[in-house]
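Why do we care about 3D structure at all? Because function follows from shape, and shape follows, mostly, from sequence. That is the central idea of this module. The next example makes it concrete: a single protein chain, its amino acid sequence, and then its structure expressed as tokens.
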Amino acid sequence: MPRPILATIDTEALSHNLRIVAGRLARGTVDSPGIWAVIKARGYGHGLLAAMHGFAQADGLAMLDLDEAVRCREAGWAGPLLLLEGFFEPSDLDILGRYRIATTLHCDEQLTMLETSRMPHALDAFVKLNSGMHRLGFQPGEFRTAFARAQALQSAGILNDVGKMTHFARADDDPAFTREQMARFHATTEGLPGAVSVCNSAATLTPGFAASVVSDRVGGTQWVRPGICLYGSSPFAHQPADSFGLRPAMTLSARLIHTHVLPAGEAIGYGQTFRADRAMRVGVVACGYADGYPRHAGTGTPITVAGVRTRLLGRVSMDMLGVDLEPVPQAHVGSDVVLWGAGGPSVDEVALSCGTIGYELLTAITPRVPRRVLQASSSGDPL
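And the structure:
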């Protein structure tokens, strides 16, 4: 039989989480934002097409790779697509036009490529402002010139709709800095036409924030760009995903492949980082860092065995990890283990124990882990 480890992807959970986000945005009201469901990094590790199907009711999909956008279009996605880093060379432009893929514009070089292109199809675009994240985007003093160049491309029939966007650096933990970024965005884009896109998962989930983005100073419809929350993980360190009504869309499960009694004074695993102070029953799970489980997870990281919450012991190996079976006397070889997800600890709990974030764990699952995609019976209720 195959090695007993599995990543189960629940597309109905993806659809459910999208409905939760839409509900928080007062979906259906006159000014409710459009939703770009972000599916970068292979749908945050869940699989590109699984994410596309789970988010069938989203207004648009946003990603990084041109190949991913083309795959979605060829798989039947008819709605808007947006490249969050835009294009990288002139040869990309023909593909964007043919497949109706919108682009982010964040540097002079992209504008120059457009100005020297011969585009058979006009592209939709968002010009990006660096409002304080200091990754991609035009500086505030450069933005209006860049936007004017985009408008000239619009007049020339190379661009179609031209909007404005930025990205928040600390919407998860510093509302004051987020308001400062928003003030820069308003001041820089005042009076400029076109759609607006600024809210990531944290800003989208913050009550009232999305509603405050579009003001008299910033015209155009609003798009939000939720990512991690759509997969059932929280963008906030101290607010669990289930407090928002979100459900985990990935469950990483395995089985016990060995059990024994660890004598008092003996240690388990490489480096002997956990040593028993008394005789105790331990198990070995068919999961390790070559599967994407973090090697830096230490003793005490939560794990569920046979439906009972317990803890990881010692150092994670390439293919195996140790687990405390003292709270689970009924556990035996073949018992089910949930590393994270439905029926086990949340991915955010595991990440917290490892000193990282759920994003990293979800995207790190390696190709050798078999996947099972649970398809929803329908695309869900309209948003």
